[in-house]
Amino acid sequence: MLPGIDDGCADVEESLTSVRALIEHGYSATICTPHCWPDLYPHITPHHIAAWVDDLQAQIDQAGLGYQLYPGGELRIHPGAVEWMARVGVPTLVGSTFVLCDFWEAKWHKWIDSTFDWLLAEGYTPILAHPERSPTKKDFDEKVDAWAARGVLLQGNFRCFTGEEGFHADTTVRRYMDQDRYTFLALDMHRPEALPGRLDGVDLAIQGYGKQRIQAMTDARVRELIFNSAK
Question: Which residues does 142 contact at the CB level (< 8 Å), separation at least 6?
Fold first, then answer.
């Protein structure tokens, strides 16, 4: 949603186009989660994200769209993640104790465990984004289950319901839904041209699992868990 900072919206016009599409689909707010990954985006820090959210919110208000933005981030787990957070701050969602995380590794490295260990020890709740898309295959479910038992939550990606993310993601997202592994589901919208498929995924998820369950995973649980722990 935040324009011109990573692989999301290129400019404010794209951001406003996205907001209008989301409003049409029944959304009223977005937690902005740009990539927090210093190797690729060294300028994206919690401090800067908060300022960029304020700037875009002003543009949305000026356009009279009645849509609310909140600061967040998506922490790329990498070998230096703990040192980076200790230096610039933890990219929590809405100033809560919840931290959205991802990683793209063919194997589950020890520094993934140490990052989760540090976050939990510091009082944060990690949320692992789109595990159904992970390239890690060996013992992945077992690792996820072990961390879930310690308090790590899972968030699924709506686009995976459409098949656009491939067969593995398509079957895994449904298996995880059937096994009730996810706490949240999210659009992971990126930019206007990516929204139609992701919104199609919302509709497919509702068809498969019911409107009440999907609303709980995109709204009620977000308010109950994330917003209620916000400072």
Answer: none
